[in-house]
Amino acid sequence: MIVETGHYALILALGIALVQSVLPLWGARTGDTRLMAVGISAALGTFLLIALAFGGLVAAYVTSDFSVLNVFENSHSQQPLIYKFTSAWGNHEGSMLLWVLILGLFGALVALLGHDLPPSLKATVLSVQAWVTVAFLLFILTTSNPFIRLMPPPIEGQDLNPILQDLGLAIHPPLLYLGYVGFSIAFSFAVAALIDGRVDAAWARWVRPWTLAAWVFLTLGIAMGSYWAYYELGWGGWWYWDPVENASFMPWLAGTALLHSALVMEKRAALKIWTILLAILTFSLSLMGTFLVRSGVLTSVHAFATDPTRGVFVLAILVVFIGGSLALFAARAGTLEAGGLFAPISREGALVFNNLFLTTATATVLVGTLYPLLLEVLNGAKISVGAPFFDLTFAPLMVPLLIAVPFGPLLAWKRGDLWAATQRLYVSAGVALAVIIVVLALEGGARVLSAFGFGLAAFLMLGSLTDLFFRAGLPRAGPSVAWLRFIGLPRSAFGTAIAHFGLGMTVLGIVAASAFQTELVTTVKPGDVLRSGGYEIRFEGMSKREGPNYSEEVAHFALSRGGVAAGTLEPTKRAYPARQMPTTESAIHTRLMSQLYLALGDSDSNGGAVVVRVWWKPLVTLIWLGAVVMGFGGMVSLADRRLRVGAPARRKAAKPARTEVGA
Amino acid sequence: MTRKQKRLFSIGGVMMVLAVAAGLVLTALSDSIAFFMSPTDIAEKAPSPSQRVRLGGLVEEGSVERGASQTVRFRITDTVQSVPVTFTGLLPDLFREGQGVVAEGTLSPDHVFVADSVLAKHDENYMPKEVEDDLKARGLWQHTGEPTASAPATPAPHVGAGA
């Protein structure tokens, strides 16, 4: 019954979304306020109905209702409750339902929080948002229905893929979707602006918090996915340039660019057309990512199932939305007036520099991701584009951008003084140089690139804080005055500094973990002692253990450091009988920010010997901590008074309301 | 600077970045991509030792030898030809004889494939796509990817709306 209710709710949601995609827009065009107001209740209704449908699916999972095909294929009665719960989106159908749930959520949030938006803009935005919702609801109902029943119902399910039986599944997909589906708002605003033929600084002020919020979630989602892959797959790597990873990374890069260009538009009313285009491109990349992951053109752990009709359907959605919005852009962009002028060396110039490099880098990732697919379609040749390609193309583009990051906030709007900014960065540059020299002295001339990487990270981290330092009036002002000025700085200044500092942390983690990681693969017998990262690792032997829905062989390692016991590590090999599938569970010991990582290989049946892989990964956790700090910076910036959702409009509404009513 | 000069300056800068990026992409595409080959492709035309290759096929039954160190030797076959492979490191969990794998590395002059990574499937239903296509093209494809015999057979799905 619950399942049928969910199914019915989803069909109803489609009906309401159809209404929402036409009436509010019609109202906005004809100036009918009652029709425009339909958008608000329709957006809330759509969201609630999708939530009901999603709840129905989750209920079927939690109660292990194997008469539902989707539950039968992806769950098992012996799974721990948390995994029964997360199994609901650990499959194609369920994850698409989560996708539209979040799409609906953002629509509802605009309806609820956007009471200061001009009604016609709000109505148009909600209609555009509904177009996307309609497309994906149709997709789910026709090709990926999670509510299909099985007759007769089987007794037991086929279990969730064991790789996905992890807490990561509870966190990674929702965060990631909040991120890249969140960019749909920027898209809807952009399309609405094109339909209206009007865009101004206020538009950017409404769009920026949404983009920033989506960006924060996407940053955390990608970082979480990376850390999950790192500990779960047992390969010790944290980024593989896998097409599916790229699918989430491209919207992140474009979204980062959008965040910065919206800033120019908000403050200086410049770059309007570019910002609109970027908003369209960012969500287009999200859609493309969905296509890549969901269509089955790629084989990966994310491609749960392959079904050609799904691929064609998502491709059609892709063509309609990207093609349609770009066509609209081509037709209407000319009607938008160009904004303020600025010198090449200025805050705006620095942000254009940022956009240029970020979008170019996005393009190289796009080429690397799509080229193998295109080549296969064109002449059947099968190639793989992996890390070497991206090391050669993406990395060189990032270096000038990262060097430029600390300069940006130090340049004035309109016309900046590069020389003055450079002088303020003397200390950071000096420290960076010292870091380079120290690394070279310790490690020898062969480490030029990694020494440079350390220097760059130091420059980024210190340089990001420089702006706060000088804005507080230091070093001239006295400490008490400086403190007062410091705490009085706008939150967005802190947000910028924190996010840029986090970026520096990530760079430091990447450089340290790639340059100084040590790896050891060896066979151990009980009593053997290995050495890695200053630890003595003693193999004590193997034992067997039973989990709720698996059995595992556990290797026991005792750690000590300089003769002092430092804990134990127990990497395991699990076998899941339901899917007859083995997995490797790595064991990780964290010391400060570095990690000792153990993964088991094959065990030798005679004599209790086992192959073990030991990595020492210095500062590796900074890679993800940096991302968390970046996300935190975004949140701090989001808490800025001027940026709070709705707040700017309220202030604005107080003044120009009189003039705008008539407009 | 006049407005015109400013504009030229900006456009020139943008062009330069794009040109550098395009150059990098083209160089990288010619040097650092790996072609997928089957054992038959390799038998027909051996790649040069500098060319990175993804070799895909099935792990030949009875061919896996584990040496004293962590070096593993096995043969990858497409049932017509087979190629000896050596790999040092940990094999993926689902690496088994008779299963589809993709090994990435180079062919040494003595025709032994030196792999630096070996990928097996992510779950029990998965066959590397290139291997599947290749086997299909040769008419050797048997769908071995069904859930194992112990799993219950899937009953016919039927839409439950209104039921």
Automatic annotation (TrEMBL), chain A:
It comes from Consotaella salsifontis. Residues 89-295 form the Cytochrome c assembly protein domain. The lineage of its organism: Bacteria, Pseudomonadati, Pseudomonadota, Alphaproteobacteria, Hyphomicrobiales. This is Cytochrome c-type biogenesis protein CcmF. It is a multi-pass membrane protein. One of its GO terms (biological process) is cytochrome complex assembly. Keywords: Cell inner membrane, Cell membrane, Cytochrome c-type biogenesis, Membrane, Transmembrane, Transmembrane helix. NCBIfam families: nrfE, PRK10369.1. Signal peptide: none annotated. GO terms for molecular function: heme binding; heme transmembrane transporter activity.
Automatic annotation (TrEMBL), chain B:
GO terms for molecular function: heme binding; metal ion binding. It is found in: Cell inner membrane; Cell membrane. GO terms for cellular component: plasma membrane. Heme binds at residues 122, 126. GO terms for biological process: cytochrome complex assembly; protein-heme linkage. Gene3D superfamilies: Nucleic acid-binding proteins. Heme chaperone required for the biogenesis of c-type cytochromes. Transiently binds heme delivered by CcmC and transfers the heme to apo-cytochromes in a process facilitated by CcmF and CcmH. Belongs to the CcmE/CycJ family. This is Cytochrome c-type biogenesis protein CcmE.
